[in-house]
Amino acid sequence: MEGGVRNICFIGAGCVGGPAAAVIAYQNPQIRVVVVDQDKSRIRRWRSAHLPLYEPGLDYLVRVSRDGSREFSFLNQPGTTISSSTTAACESNPLQQDIRDEEQQNNRIAVQARHPNLLFTPKFEKSIKEADVIFVAVNTPTKLKGIGAGSATDMTAFEAATNTVARYAKPGAIIVEKSTMLMHRPSFGFEVLSNPEFLATGTAVNDLLHPSRVLIGHSKLPSGRRAAHTLRSIYASWVPNDRIITTDVWSSELSKIVANSLLAQRISSINSVSAICEKVGADVYEVAACVGSDPRIGDKYLQAGIGFGGSCLKKDLLSLVYLAESLQLDEVGDYWRQVIKMNEFQRDRFSKRVVRCLNNTLVGKKITLFGYTFKAGTSDTRDSPALEIIKSLLEENPREIAIFDPLCNPALIREEIEGLRKTCDTNLGLVEIIKIYDNPYKACAASNAVLITTECEEFQNTSVETNRPATAPKNELVDPRPLSTPKPTEQEVLRLHQFLMSVNPSSNLGDSDPLRRLIRPPPCANDCPDCGPQAHARSRCGDSDNYRSKNRLDWSKIVPLLAMPKWVFDGKGVIEPNSLIEIGVKVESIGRQGI
Ligand code: NAD
Predict the structure, then answer these.
(1) Half-sphere exposure of 379 (CA within 13 A, CB side)
(2) Is the dihedral of CA 178, 179, 181, 183 positive or negative?
(3) pLDDT digits (tens, 9 = 90+) for 169-205
């Protein structure tokens, strides 16, 4: 592309499109990135202080790129404090900073102001017409009806998006498939690249900033190679060259589906072992730690629990099954389908264990669920195992099912529970049975059993390390100064920002801008629905401004609140059982023999 890429358009402002566009815009200030979506309320929130999803670090990247940033400077000297490294601080404390040391002044790096280059809009036509590169990041769920129902990918949204592209895109524009799917070639005369996204919910920004690989699938024609080269140039501003892999389109799309299928397979494998551990008296967490210490195996994705959820693993497994079956490779399809069956078996085993321990009846009993999202660190509830467990428990007619989740928006849980009416044929009113609490202690009052259904740190009764040896250590951030160049890249500035945030914990609470570069976000309209008490009611992935990390629960306060006999069912391996047993609780954990 002559003169390089100047305009990018993203179609789909969801969990992938929004963060991916924000990272590309942040790292390429010279490129204008426009994000369009048919969901107008989503666009409104991306344009406001209430981002439609919570991902650590996303708010900062969006604000710098969307609103632009002020000029600032910092001392290029390791260990200097936030206040001594900011222009704003100099301005507010002229005497304190006053040229104290000329040498220090010479050692100061000035970073110029940035113009906004990230725009969210519901206007498709103009945005697509202007784009040199168009990323399609719309949802591709599993088909629910018709041929291939239950395993094929539903291409409705993707096809609608590509039809719009075909109508408006200029000749020579490059189309990039970010959505996950297998070999769907839109029939129009543009160069189409496959560029699957490997980010995980909850670590999306980090995954995008430090990808293990960026995969670009292209046709073997010279035009395909040229298009891949153009896409590579966008990523090259922050991704090392050897991590950008080019391949053919089939290999690219299959790699994404196979990666998720293998991750799911590991979870199902350790879960199958957990069932054996419960019978023979072994401890699945010890087995996982031991097995995972073998470098050929590794310790990732070996945590036993109630199974995987979320929008991707099951969907991608089903796509693989569908592909195998449509190629008449039934044994291959059966092999991968078993991974899903094991996941369901594990979840059902957990529900059955609860009912069995409670004398095979839940009538008149209250059950409390700690955790509703599909995993910790996210407010994404898509395909959450907790919802399936709730459905099974409802069959037993309990008096109450209480839900507490530290990250999830109660309004969203309520909305999803309403959706249960369609699938459950319980005689009792769901609203009366299922209650959502924002206070974990109230959720436990007079409860017959507490079920732990996400691995939130808040629920642990001891340090994670002692109980779940397979968890990854947290990365320590180091001061990137002194920088070798007087003109740092945005990646270097970001590293400094992250380091300054990490050494000044107070910045997590109030000051999220240690370099003083942010511009105040646009003010909300008086009737902003997200500012009022009904805020965030329709957010699927969560709330950026709603999340505050909570304190660990005090189990010594919870235990007296429980009804006799006091049961805790740990579906995620976050509880160290002995210390609870000592204070009179009956603990049942996945992968450990019960009472
Ligand atoms: P999402 O549901 O969060 O977002 C999709 C967005 O596309 C929605 O905002 C929707 O309104 C919009 N949309 C749908 N049809 C449209 C159209 N015709 N025109 C304009 N906008 C349209 O989905 P997501 O989680 O961002 O996933 C997007 C794709 O990325 C999927 O194929 C998914 O499999 C893949 N993926 C997701 C993840 C993840 O963790 N969520 C990770 C890797 C890949």
Answers:
(1) 29
(2) negative
(3) 999 999 999 998 876 666 667 999 999 999 999 899 9
- Supply the residues annotated as catalytic: 312
Whether ligand 1 lies within 6 angstroms of the CB of 311 is answered as yes
Alpha helices (H) along 38-155: 40-46, 58-67, 87-92, 94-97, 102-106, 124-130
The domains of the chain, with CATH numbers, are: 7-68+115-239 (3.40.50.720), 72-111+478-515 (no CATH), 258-471+551-589 (3.40.50.720)
* C-alpha closest to that of 558 among 459, 436, 410: 459
Torsion of CA 382, 205, 288, 342, to 10 degrees: 20
Give me ligand 1 centre to Cα 144, in Å: 17
User: What residue's CA is closest to ligand 1, atom 44?
Assistant: 197
Q: 202 in ligand 1 pocket by Cβ < 6 Å? A: no
pLDDT in tens, 93-128: 556 656 566 656 678 999 999 999 999 999 999 999
Look up tokens 């936030």; give the residue: 82
Kindly report the protein residue whose alpha carbon is nearest to atom 12 of ligand 1.
Answer: 12
Q: Which atom of ligand 1 is nearest to the CA of 311?
A: 41
